[in-house]
Design goal:
alpha/beta; 3-stranded antiparallel sheet; Rossmann fold; 17% strand
Length: 263
């Protein structure tokens, strides 16, 4: 259960939990409710300033962060509460069957940064920039269209120019666009924003991002969602073992690898 504070504090997180309204789920045999992690979900704790969701591909990380973002009022394809474009309806209906448990605080700003649909977000930014007063829209992206920057540059431009104090920021695999050095830059930016009263919920595979001080790491494993220490994550262990002796690691890995990639 999420921590309930006995008295308001200036930097309390905005979200305390996400609850699945299980009695309202139409069927646990259809997607997204058929996902093991959703079938076993009752309440997802979010009552810290930085929460990471980790797990294998297909474990449901993106589905959960999307539900949090849409339930919080953000566009399923990314952006802020003010963005209401839609290029292709691909969001799940999980957000219709959850309830966010909120603290007394309300975010001043926020953003849903979604890697897989960020191109669509860039196209919407270009459209809005052509409207009266549209230059202000570009300012949030560094003064240039996201399509005129590399994927990583445009991500960092959003982090620097659009993210601000007292914000609720939901990120889906941001490392996909960022080099290791830029991931470190993201950690620095996150620390500044957390110090200024912001909250983050992030789905990631990055062992660099997972090292953020004081973050809660929640591992999705089948129907279970459980807290895990950083050094107990597979992300850390595999990266450590590989970097300690890459030649030996690859020799053993490739010698045992099946010829059929599906095996």
């Amino acid at each position: 259960m999420p921590r309930r504070t006995t008295s308001p504090r200036p930097n309390d997180p905005f979200l305390l939990a996400m609850r699945l309204l299980r009695d309202e789920v139409p069927s646990f045999d259809v997607y997204p409710f058929s996902l093991p992690v959703v079938r076993g979900l009752h309440e997802l704790p979010l009552d810290v300033k930085v929460t990471f969701l980790i797990g294998e591909n297909g474990s449901g990380k993106s589905t959960l962060v999307e539900a949090i973002a849409v339930a919080a009022g953000y566009n399923p394809e990314g952006g802020s509460r003010d963005n209401n474009f839609e290029t292709r309806r691909s969001d799940s209906q999980l957000h219709r069957h959850v309830r966010l448990v909120r603290s007394w605080r309300r975010p001043r700003t926020g953003y849903f940064l979604r890697t897989e649909s960020f191109y669509n977000m860039g196209t919407e930014v270009d459209r809005l920039s052509q409207l009266p007063g549209g230059f202000a829209t570009l300012q949030a992206y560094g003064g240039r269209s996201p399509h005129e920057q590399s994927h990583g540059e445009s991500f960092l431009a959003v982090l620097k120019n659009r993210f601000g104090p007292n914000g609720l920021y939901i990120l889906d695999e941001p490392e996909a666009a960022l080099s290791p050095q830029r991931q470190l830059a993201l950690l620095v930016r996150m620390q500044h924003l957390v110090d200024d009263g912001s909250q983050f919920v992030i789905a990631t595979h990055s062992p660099i991002l997972l090292a953020f001080p004081g973050a809660r790491l929640l591992r999705l494993d089948g129907e279970r969602i459980e807290p895990v220490a950083y050094r107990q994550t597979e992300h850390y262990a595999l990266t450590r073992d590989f970097l300690n002796d890459p030649d030996r690691y690859l020799k053993r890995l490739l010698a045992d690898a099946p010829r059929d990639p599906e095996d």
